[in-house]
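Hi R.,

Here are the chain sequences for the assembly we discussed:
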Amino acid sequence: MKTIGVLTSGGDAPGMNAAIRAVVRTAIYNGIKVMGIQQGYNGLINGNIKEMDLSSVGDIIHRGGTILRTARCEEFKTEEGRQKALTVLKVFGIEGLVVIGGDGSFQGAQKLSHAGIKTIGIPGTIDNDLAYTDYTIGFDTALNTVLDSVSKIRDTSASHGRANIIEVMGRHCGDIALYSGLAGGAESIIVPEEDFDIDSICKKLIQGKNRGKLHSIIMLAEGIGNAFELGKEIEEKTGIETRVTILGHVQRGGSPTAFDRILASRMGARAVELLIEGKSGRAIGIRNNKLVDMDIDEALEMEKKFDKDIYELTKILSI
Amino acid sequence: MKTIGVLTSGGDAPGMNAAIRAVVRTAIYNGIKVMGIQQGYNGLINGNIKEMDLSSVGDIIHRGGTILRTARCEEFKTEEGRQKALTVLKVFGIEGLVVIGGDGSFQGAQKLSHAGIKTIGIPGTIDNDLAYTDYTIGFDTALNTVLDSVSKIRDTSASHGRANIIEVMGRHCGDIALYSGLAGGAESIIVPEEDFDIDSICKKLIQGKNRGKLHSIIMLAEGIGNAFELGKEIEEKTGIETRVTILGHVQRGGSPTAFDRILASRMGARAVELLIEGKSGRAIGIRNNKLVDMDIDEALEMEKKFDKDIYELTKILSI
Amino acid sequence: MKTIGVLTSGGDAPGMNAAIRAVVRTAIYNGIKVMGIQQGYNGLINGNIKEMDLSSVGDIIHRGGTILRTARCEEFKTEEGRQKALTVLKVFGIEGLVVIGGDGSFQGAQKLSHAGIKTIGIPGTIDNDLAYTDYTIGFDTALNTVLDSVSKIRDTSASHGRANIIEVMGRHCGDIALYSGLAGGAESIIVPEEDFDIDSICKKLIQGKNRGKLHSIIMLAEGIGNAFELGKEIEEKTGIETRVTILGHVQRGGSPTAFDRILASRMGARAVELLIEGKSGRAIGIRNNKLVDMDIDEALEMEKKFDKDIYELTKILSI
Amino acid sequence: MKTIGVLTSGGDAPGMNAAIRAVVRTAIYNGIKVMGIQQGYNGLINGNIKEMDLSSVGDIIHRGGTILRTARCEEFKTEEGRQKALTVLKVFGIEGLVVIGGDGSFQGAQKLSHAGIKTIGIPGTIDNDLAYTDYTIGFDTALNTVLDSVSKIRDTSASHGRANIIEVMGRHCGDIALYSGLAGGAESIIVPEEDFDIDSICKKLIQGKNRGKLHSIIMLAEGIGNAFELGKEIEEKTGIETRVTILGHVQRGGSPTAFDRILASRMGARAVELLIEGKSGRAIGIRNNKLVDMDIDEALEMEKKFDKDIYELTKILSI
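And here is the predicted structure of the full complex:
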């Protein structure tokens, strides 16, 4: 392995830069040349590629976003697009490729692997929606960003005695809502994995009010109905003034937390080690607090388990 | 003056607690008893009132929201409601009242003043929409909260090459949009005080993109059209992917900044001094970096001037 | 089990309040009465004890410090002191006790367990110096607090082209230095578990400077020599201006991170469950991402392992 | 005026980048070429100078430090050094120079002005130690950084019932200590401008403790005795455990606040306007909330006034 490439693909996540840094420095430490591919698979198709040195990744470990930029790429999903990519990889002499992204990005990596390019996937997405790994890079930062907003909303809600619905990201995965709901002391948490009953949410709001609670937080995963309509319904049923906040893209940015920087650094280094060992088509994850790697197809076929115990715990702790 | 009261009214703002603390401690320092009135004018009508001591305001200077809670109060706008309030004030022996809030709250204070209660208004609102004072308590904190979100949105926008519309608060006053737009390096700022032309906004986006800008921020004051429709229009006209974030109630919370705590502390102390001097119906403000006080009616009649120079400056600095 | 007590002991750590909240609410949910004991074992000896209800722990999950306050207690280390404590426990009808703290606190809990009180230990200390658990409550928050300071010091160091020594806490455990050094991109990390060679640190500084690095960070665990003398020595040997920052007690405070709040909430709930199951003398930990509990004596006898792999990784990533 | 230069000099301050950005963009907007001079007057002497374009200052408004880097320069204080600088200015065709820094930097600018180069000074220092301007760039950010640390120290102090001495920067100017003391709710503030009496500080600590205060903060400006010795003395006299934190260089970094970014942007633009008007040897300041400019010599001769009223206010508010 003389030359490897690295790209970030799909939605960006805080910590991607820490992963890029680890890939680049570990490679150079091992005498391997690293090419930075811009804007995900687009850069691979269009040859938007530049060699990276130690300084290319200086002063980026603490920055949100990705210096390689990212994009979704329709063309790469076609046979023709991938052929272009393979030609470009050949021209640049890239034998191994590290792909930092989510499931769509991994599928692309797997296809390149079948075509003879050694590829390794690193899970970078705030959604924590990959079943094969306990944590994805960016999830911890997103949780803390959500909590910061919850704290601010608490202040004003307590002053006014309001209920608040806070809609967070997740794309069919309730982890951000669940864990930020637990950590934020939310009264109710609405996730796609569990049915919810508006009447019991309302009952809890009223009980809380009667007990003297100054405010209530309802954490809502995106994609489950309309937050504003939910707010209206709750207001009508309880008589408690209810406000809605949709946190949106704020959740994707920010300086990564210690947890995400460490996870990203370890995964980036491991990716290069795997390439040196001749591995390909592997997804890196963390399970039971240990780095693991497994076949990308297998990884993607696994079904994400919802943590029912934590969900039940949130009910007990918010009585 | 043996006994005074203090209340917070209208929308809450970070720094209100610092003002309450200053009122309470300055009063006690001067041998005056202080009664804390809960939930704005409602507490005045309903007698929801408790004496405060030095410890009542311990450890609150750095907290968002208001420990006295706040509310809007329709009943107080009626003659009958105000009569109840006057009776309550008499019962509790409250001779002077410090009202922390916005224009509506001040009007109430003025009415009480005409009825013989000595009242002083302190401007507490994040909107900075009071013409007679350069700054209101909470405005500086809100600006910094907005900037924190702008930074996070920058990260992800730069990764994806997107434009972003960020809708901020202001209620007919563009100050939050204007100053956070300047400080956040926004490409365009849309405020109620100035006409805007969507074509020139689009032109600027395209020029920026051609120059290599990775992202663009459009700061939008609430109440000027629909942010999502604006986003769609921009996307169609420019072909640049555009995302919308409505910051919402997050802007009302958070630990107050140094600026807001200092302003609130000074104004709170001054309010008590004015009461001691026998003044009434006065609004405290800061102008040209000096505390001032003026007749509440005069204060409310003044017309808020939009800072056209700053607006023009933002255009030059975002070329 | 009808009544349990909860106390925090030793140095405080962010997340202790989240643990208290979980203990109280899980107990009440299960029909158990909870007594809050103030200032660690002192409160136990002096009967500084009050019943807690659902509202006692409202609005504290996000606050640093501990509402029960904490202290070290010499008297409790004596037989006589512990007899007093046992009497007090009897008087208040406390059958089970949850102790949140570090190793000294756990030893106390173990002694009470031998005397017939059912006790459970929850690891609360920023130092992460307990061998039997992968993480202690407060460690993740401390890491992020350190990183925030590292970012600020980076800014000014890069402007001036300086090296910086940053001394962090740890009490004979290098984990804060190690993990914040990895996540902060430190050039060198000095921990008690590994010998260090000042000449190789200096060599690295000079190489970095020659390569164009604008600044360098040396992360130093407290207790290893004098930071200021080290700074002088480095300055003399390299000619690079070197500044020293001792972060100190700032590391112990702050709103807990999502990770610490979740860990604390889970551990607090588990502690009550263990008491209900009739367990005693158990320390709760997290290993391989799963909650575990083990005999306190065994837990305290385990030897903390330094993560040599991570230490080596920091060298590769900072070349 | 066809070409101007810009440099930052002396200690760095958050907001310097916002000022550089404003200088560059305002100049280019007016058809003027801008040269960026690296590392203060050193770059001027050594010709470390590069043309800046619109993109040179993209994405820097929110970053701490200075992209032009900074340094103190002994050589420039000599006649010979300044002759070199004048030659370099001529070679690069630089007719006007914007100097961002403190008093030493301004003296240099004044000397260049006398030698025929048009110079304008912008006050950039966290210390707020320039008498002619109400605020310097970086001061507001430093205050907020200090407050963030005060909040964290409060948490742990309240848990332990300790007193804390927090030493802040200021170089013979007590403004950081004074204003962060007011905003942080410090019990005592020790500044170079006012004598202090350790016995009355101790008395206040004891009174506070007796009143039930869980913690006390003593804000200390650097350079007034030894913080650790002061801590020991207080501990001995009061019996209250006392901890010392020296905040150090953390205060110089961090993303600038809204206030500092706005002030810097306005001052940067004004500097270019003044050069266009043919002005020279002028220092820009803000007084009574309005931008002003005055002769540098006059500005530096003014004597900084300590705000005694604010100092007295802090005593009242911390009873």
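The domain at 140-252 of chain D is CATH 3.40.50.460 (Rossmann fold). The two ends of chain D are 57 Å apart (CA to CA).

Let me know if anything looks off.

Best,
T.
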